[in-house]
Design goal:
By secondary structure, the chain is an alpha/beta fold. It folds into 2 domains: 257 residues, Vaccinia Virus protein VP39 (Rossmann fold); 120 residues, Immunoglobulin-like, CATH 2.60.40. It has a 7-stranded mixed β-sheet, with helices on both faces. Strands 9, 11, 12, 14, 15 and 16 form a 6-stranded mixed β-sheet that branches. Strand 4, helix 9 and strand 5 form a beta-alpha-beta unit. The two termini are 42 Å apart.
Length: 440
């Protein structure tokens, strides 16, 4: 197909001059933007006029939250979440996956779950290896949550999970004591959300992250929300994404972002035979309209206490384009003699590569040595330092010395990048550069 021919023709050019790729993508963006303009939606109106009244009723809403859990007719259903909600099961798993990815979570992190309810999410994170601190206004909910931890023999008690009832105003934690804060379908139930934003920032460590999964436009006036409020008295607040971001920045967060991801039931299906035409633009308008509706009606929100850009300490997308500089002919090496090769390496991912030696995230150029039949000779054959930290879309040039090979024959040098003690880039999707060579 013409598209395949163009792709094969342009790939070498983009590898040699990555700025051309950036320019091409920017041009496409400018071309399609007018066509997508009708799908843009206005910012929702603020409920600032109601905010002060709601905050004055904080204690009242807290009592209603406790009554909700204390009077719930089927406590086992709450304890069995997410399995007790078959109609929402897939949605819950997707939500949790997106939140964990957005938090860049690792075992050993200290995670505060605010508005934890019966703590099923915190129990999952405990099993993952995080120290969890659950906070809620309802003593009954936390009592249920503790029983959930206690009835599972696989609970990691050595992580010392904590359960705290709080007054709805001040988090019962010292400043700078948690790595991550997660709120799952909870922030819109809080009558004083701006006060709690400041509290979350206070307890976070300098590079901490808050992640929320929250409903968007129209939630408070939906039939299900109105029925829930009428039946239980629990607050179903309407919060605008932009206002959350502005208030977060005013509370001391450095950045506020939203993850562009849909969730059931907004995920679309198409005929498998139509995937390639779809990638070329067919039926894209329907998809884009559906995605915009999903993004407007639900938000995955990230708030950063420090630099929001991912680094190799906690990487996201690791993509390196490696190109050997020099003649394209097969490499010939004299037996017993090292040789220097030059490489151009382009960071085509979203993660900042760190070159600091013996520190978390230490990233280096590396190479494996194989015989030509791909039997391994030396997996850790070569290491070479980067000349500097490498930001996304940045290029660096390397001069790498390949050690002497004593045995004549045909070999294959496989060049890649590695985060020491963590992962090779090829394990995360990068295509390594293969350099055939003959030793004579």
């Amino acid at each position: 197909m013409i598209s395949d021919i163009l792709r094969r023709a342009l790939r070498p050019l983009f590898q040699r001059a990555p700025w051309l790729r950036t320019l091409a993508l920017g041009s496409v963006d400018l071309l399609v933007r007018p066509a997508l303009f009708p799908y843009r939606r206005a910012r929702p109106s603020s409920n600032a006029d109601d905010a002060a009244m709601l905050e004055l009723k904080t204690d009242e809403f807290n009592r209603e939250a406790e009554h909700y859990f204390a009077a719930y007719p089927d406590p086992d259903r709450l304890l069995d979440k997410p399995f007790s909600e078959p109609e929402f099961f897939s949605q819950r798993l997707i939500d949790v996956g997106v939140l964990v990815d957005g938090l860049r979570l690792r075992p050993g992190d200290v995670v505060l779950e605010l508005g934890a309810g019966t703590c099923w999410l915190s129990h999952l994170l405990n099993r993952y290896g995080c120290k969890t601190i659950v906070v809620d206004v309802s003593p009954t909910a936390l009592s249920m949550g503790r029983s959930l931890f206690e009835r599972d023999p696989r609970t990691n008690w050595h992580l010392e999970p904590e359960f705290h009832v709080y007054d709805g105003h001040t988090l019962p934690l010292d400043a700078g004591t948690v790595d991550r804060v997660v709120l799952y379908d909870a922030f819109h139930h809080i009558p004083n959300p701006w006060q709690l934003l400041g509290e979350m920032r206070r307890v976070l460590r300098p590079n901490g992250i808050v992640a929320m999964s929250e409903p968007g436009r129209g939630h408070s006036t939906s039939p299900s929300s109105l029925a829930e409020t009428a039946a239980t008295g629990v607050l179903e607040n309407e919060l605008a994404l932009e206002e959350i971001a502005e208030r977060a920045l005013a509370s001391g967060f450095v950045a506020a972002r939203v993850i562009l991801s849909g969730r059931p039931p907004s995920l679309l299906e198409i005929d498998a035979r139509d995937l390639r035409p779809f990638m070329g633009g067919r039926s894209f308008g329907r998809y884009w309209k559906n995605l915009c509706t999903a993004l407007d009606s639900h938000h995955y929100i990230l708030l950063f206490a420090g630099d929001p850009e991912p680094t190799t300490r906690r990487p996201k997308r690791l993509v390196a384009n490696i190109r050997r500089i020099g003649p394209r002919r097969a490499l010939q090496i004299s037996r017993g003699k090292p040789i220097e090769l030059m490489f151009d390496v382009h960071n085509a991912g979203d993660t900042h590569w760190l070159r600091g030696e013996n520190a978390a995230g230490w990233t280096r150029f590396g190479a494996h040595l194989y015989h030509s039949d791909r039997t391994l000779v030396d997996y850790d054959w070569v290491r070479a330092s980067l000349p500097q930290d490498v930001a996304p879309e940045q290029n660096v040039h390397l001069v790498v010395t390949l050690p002497a090979i004593q045995e004549p024959g045909n070999y294959l040098v496989v060049c890649d990048l590695v985060i020491e003690g963590a992962t090779w880039f090829a394990e995360r999707g990068t295509r390594p550069l293969e350099v055939p060579c003959r030793v004579v």
